[in-house]
Amino acid sequence: MIKKLTTRQEYEETKAIVEALITEATEKGMLEPKMDNEYTRQISDLSKLMAQYEDEYTDILPLREKSPLIRSIEDYFYARNMKQKEGARYLGINESVLSQILSGKRRITMPIAKLLHSKLGINADMILKYA
């Protein structure tokens, strides 16, 4: 097993192997959630090597994890089958404002925090902690 990818060629070769493993495992029904087999272990190991290479040698930004507050807002709308536009209307705010909040580009103001608490029933402690 390779210890570390250090060249773009090694990265691309590893990527091709992972893609082939995913295709083969999917065809054989070996890539279902929570499965632990040779395919899933090998894909996981190679993916970690690729991620390490990306961190060290590329300018790819890591995915930002959503805060529990943002997930709560999204879960509220999802559970009620509301689109973002409908959610913004329900809260009485502009759709672009809600979009920016959900994407992390805009901070949650006190008036919006109050709406999240009163209209969506989101715990005030969570709002204070993650807003």
What string gives the helices and strands in order?
HHHHHHH
Largest sheet: none
Q: Label the overall shape.
A: elongated
How many E strands? 0
Number of helices: 7
Uncertain ranges: none
What's the alpha carbon Rg, rounded to whole Å?
Answer: 21 Å
- Find the structural class using helix and strand composition: mainly alpha
Mean pLDDT: 89
Q: For the terminal residues, how far apart are their CA atoms? A: 44 Å
Q: Could you estimate the helical fraction of the residues in percent? A: 55-70%
Bin the strand percentage: under 5%
Could you walk me through the main structural features you see in this protein, from its secondary elements to its overall organization?
Helix content is 66%, strand content 0%. The protein has 131 residues and is an all-alpha fold. Helix 1 packs antiparallel against helix 2. The longest helix is centred in the first third of the chain and has 20 residues. The radius of gyration is 21 Å and the shape is elongated. The N and C termini lie far apart (44 Å). The model has no long low-confidence stretch (mean pLDDT 89).
Topology overview:
Elements: H1 8-27, H2 38-57, H3 68-79, H4 84-91, H5 95-102, H6 110-120, H7 124-130
Helix pairs in contact: 1-2, 4-5
